[in-house]
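Hi C.,

You asked whether I'd gotten around to modeling the 372-residue construct. I have! Everything is below, sequence then structure, no commentary in between.
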Amino acid sequence: MLSASSVKGLTAVPYGTWPRGRAGTRVRWQAGLWVRAPKARRAPHGSAPGRTPVGTRRHTSQYRADTSQHEAEGDVMTDQLTVSVLGTGIMGAAMARNLARAGHRVRVWNRSRGKAEPLAADGAHVADSPEEAVRGADAILTMLYDGPAALDVMRRAVPGLRPGTVWAQSTTAGVDAVADLAAFAHEHDLVFFDAPVLGTRQPAEAGQLLVLAAGPGAARDKVAPVFDAVGSRTVWTGEDGAAGTATRLKLVANSWVLAATNAVGEALSLAKALGVDPDGFFDAIAGGPLDMGYLRAKAALIRDGALTPAQFAVTTAEKDARLIVEAGEANGVRLDLAAAGAQRFARAAAQGHGDEDMAAAYFASFEEKATD
C-alpha cells in the first residue's frame, strides 16, 4: 500500500472516516487510501461523470447521512454490485458487513435467521430463502460449514439463479467437494471461483483476510470488488476453479495453523501438570526462533478464559482437520499430527467447548473440563 506522502499532491484521510471534499477538491480512493485532489471541472450536461472505483470502503451509517451532500459534490460512488452472502456465521457476517461498508447492495441468508438479522443494521437485506437472496445478484459469496452444505444451499437457490452470475465459494470445502461445486456451477452457467480465505474473526471484521482464489482471468474484474471489500490481498492460484488449487493451498496453510494451535494447548497443559509457571516458558523463548506471536495470542485466550466469542470455533477446526487428513490419504501421505489434532478437537467439542475458540482444544488434555 502506498502512503499518503508517496502520492504527490494528495492528502490521506483516516480509514473509517467519511471523507469530505474541501473547496476546490474532490475525494477519491487511490492506493488503498481516501485521498483529496483538485476537483476536475464538471463534464458537460449529458456526458458521463467520473466515478470512484468499486470496492471503496465506507461505513453504511455515514454513507446514509452524507449521501445527499456527496451526490451534490459528485463524490459518491455510483458503481455498485448486488452481492448475496449465503452463510452469516463468524466469517460470513463480517464479510457481509465489509461488503456493505464498501457501498455494495448486500443480501444475506443464514439457516438460523437470528444470525443474519443483526446485519440489517448495516444496510443488508435479510432474505427468507437462498432463492430470494440470489435473485438478481451480480455476485454470490458462500461461507458455509462445508462443501455438502454449500451445494445443498445452492441447489435451494436454483430458481433465483441467472446465467453469468459470479459465484465465489469461500467455504473450506475439501478438494473433492470443490469439484462437485464447480460441476454445479457449470450446470447452471455460473462463473465459478474457488476462493477460500485465510484469517479468523478479527481480520475478517477488519476486512483484512487473505483471499486465495482460482478462476477465469477474463472474469476476475467482476469478482475483484468483492475480494477487495473483504480482504487485504488476493493470491491467485490458477485459472480453473474446478481444479481446487486455492482450496489445496488453504488446506496446507490450515494444517500448520491447526498443528500450532494444538501445540499451544499441549504446552500449557503440560506446564500445568508439571507445576511450571507458563511465564517462565515464555521468558525462556522470548525473542528467539521459537517465539511467535500466534503462540502468545492463543495462550492468552486460554489463560484469560477469553475463548468466547470464538475467533475460529473448535467444531470448524475439527472439520478442517478431517479434510486435511482425507486430502493426505487420498494422495498417499500419512498426516499423523493432523489426525491426532482432529481427535483433540473432537474431544474438546464433546466436553462442551465446540462453540469456543479452537484454542479450547487445550481442555482435551484433561479427563474432565479443566479450570485455571
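If it helps when you're writing up: The first helix runs from residue 60 to 73.

Thanks,
B.
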